[in-house]
């Protein structure tokens, strides 16, 4: 889903690949950095599995008025729950929470973003409630503030539609050369 942001090459970024502790909490949350409007984006690529069923990340929201998150379950064989907590531990947004929390999550995942105060925030990723399937789930998410974000490994992926005519025209433009000299391999000993 497009989040209404455009890439900017000269913007700082933070990118995290890793696992969280076995029993994550606010005190053991993995710090993914600080977020400033139009200056940074935070990126996480990780996984949960039957042994580590929950990951928790913390970040500081230094400037701006709205948070935007783009979450993707890369494995997608199980549903994942994504929750956003503020510094007081209050559940702000939850894709499986109450209707108010789900609406806040929809805003978080939209181009307008979720209005938020500056401060410390926590993102918790776990298996969805009542999910009997618990295979390994790879996921990634990016958090932005403002209208620009920096190019990074996750956010700068681009795709090109396949066009067979491109390959035909390239093949037709290759011509053989008739003035190629053959060289014999030789060795000289002193």
Task: Describe the structure using short key phrases.
190 residues; mainly beta; 2 helices; 38% strand
Sequence-ordered SSE layout with sheet pairings:
Blueprint: E1 6-8, E2 14-17, E3 30-36, E4 42-48, E5 54-63, E6 66-73, E7 80-86, E8 91-94, H1 99-108, E9 114-115, E10 119-127, E11 137-144, E12 148-150, H2 164-172
Parallel strand pairs: 1-12, 2-4, 3-5
Antiparallel strand pairs: 4-11, 5-10, 6-9, 6-11, 7-8, 7-10
In summary, what is this structure?
By secondary structure, the protein is mostly beta strands.
Describe the structure in your own words:
This protein has 190 residues and is mainly β. The chain has two helices and twelve strands. It has a five-stranded mixed beta sheet with strand order 2-4-11-6-9. Strands 3-5-10-7-8 form a five-stranded mixed beta sheet. Strands 1-12 form a two-stranded parallel ribbon. Strand 7 and strand 8 form a beta hairpin.
The value of Rg in angstroms is: 24 Å
Low-confidence stretches: 10-21, 150-177, 180-188
The SSE string, one letter per element, is EEEEEEEEHEEEEH
- The helix-and-strand class reads mainly beta
């Amino acid at each position: 889903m497009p989040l209404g942001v455009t890439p900017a090459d000269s913007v700082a970024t933070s990118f995290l690949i890793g696992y969280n502790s076995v029993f994550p909490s606010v005190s053991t949350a993995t710090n993914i950095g600080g977020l400033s409007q139009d200056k940074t984006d935070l990126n996480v690529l990780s996984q949960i599995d039957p042994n580590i069923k929950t990951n928790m990340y913390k970040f500081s929201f230094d400037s701006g008025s709205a948070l935007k998150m783009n979450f993707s379950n890369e494995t997608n064989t199980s549903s994942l729950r994504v929750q956003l907590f503020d510094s007081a531990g209050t559940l702000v947004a939850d894709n499986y929470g109450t209707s108010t929390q789900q609406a806040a999550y929809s805003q978080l995942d939209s181009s307008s973003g979720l209005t938020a105060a500056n401060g410390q925030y926590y993102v918790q990723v776990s298996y969805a409630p009542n999910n009997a399937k618990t295979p390994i789930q790879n996921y990634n998410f990016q958090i932005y503030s403002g209208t620009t974000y920096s190019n990074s490994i996750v956010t700068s992926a681009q795709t090109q539609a396949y066009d067979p005519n491109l390959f035909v025209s390239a093949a037709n433009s290759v011509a053989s050369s008739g003035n190629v000299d053959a060289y014999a391999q030789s060795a000289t000993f002193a």
